[in-house]
Amino acid sequence: MRVLAVVQAWNSTDPIRGFIVRWMEKLAERVDELVVLTLEQREVPQKPNIRVYSLGKEYLSKCGRGWQYPVRWQYLVRWHHIMTHIMKRSKPDVIFTHMSPVFSVLAAPYAKLKRVPIVTWYAHPSLTWILKLAHHLSDRMVTSVATAYPYRKDKLVVVGQGIDTDLFCPDGSPPEEPPMILCVGRLSPVKDHPTLIRAAALLRGRLGKPFRVVILGGPAGPKDEPYVRSLHQLVEGLGLQDIVSFHPPVPQSTLPDWYRRCTVLVNMTPTGSGDKVVWEAMACGRPCIAANEGFRETMGEYAGALLFPYGDAESLAERLLWLLHLPPDEVQRIGTYLRERVV
């Protein structure tokens, strides 16, 4: 089988999209040829049956031109040349696009002409006209959990998140002391960090022992900078400077160490998306407290204790208080159970 995969970036050190390289390497082990078309390429593929074509964002970014009009037309012209070349030379059996339904729309004329099916991955609560169009042009839609796909289910297949459980695994080390409450992901309003910060203020007066909160991540772009400033102001306003700390995003290869150091990972994202950091932490054998009902199946018998209502700092504080008062062997038992569920 020959596969054409269209992705946003080919860069294993990217804190947000670095996992794509590992995904594609695993996929390449199961197919004869994998052709990757990406917005930007920062490294050379390591598998002999992988070929990567870039639309050139890495070069335009150096010039400070990014994705602004009229540069988009340069991308579209290059897209046409590359797609024409790939469809003629590689003759893919299937086209797979990841998290950008516009790629499926742009690929459709070439795919329909050659009768090549399109499989579109989408896991996000945002429902746009582009997604609706991509849905109708695709032969299959795939997502991590059913609640992460906001449109019709007639073409939908739920495939899981694709967590690398060899990379994300326990190493036998205990969580550090004092307990670390970890939050991983971009600093964006949808992640609802204020709920965690307010829960930390409540926990400070109830736990009766030291703890710390680590927020690991950065803004997705300039538009999130005011939000980041508001988080720092909230921490200062609640007098939590000695408890809550912010750390920049890290490559995927170093994330397992952070998960293993924490006692619990907290994720405040609402139902309607599949946030992979929760599954990654669970795969490392760490309990996770989340606001997303999409994790209920994975959490199994512990779902009632580990899920909390979105935006409810009081409920989050109560669940953290319960978990941090558990004996270490019970916390480990929960983590082992959750890893088994992820696997």
Tell me what the structure shows.
- The protein is α/β, with parallel strands linked by helices and 343 residues long.
- 39% of the residues lie in helices and 17% in strands.
- The chain is built from 13 helices and twelve strands.
- The chain has helices at 19-28, 57-62, 71-89, 101-114, 129-137, 193-204, 225-237, 255-261, 276-283, 296-299, 303-306, 313-324, 328-342; strands at residues 2-10, 33-41, 50-54, 94-98, 118-121, 140-143, 156-158, 180-184, 212-216, 244-247, 264-267, 288-290.
- The strands form two sheets. The chain has a seven-stranded parallel β-sheet, sandwiched between helices. The protein has a five-stranded parallel β-sheet with strand order 10-9-8-11-12, with helices on both faces.
- α4 links the parallel β4 and β5.
- It is elongated and about 65 Å long.
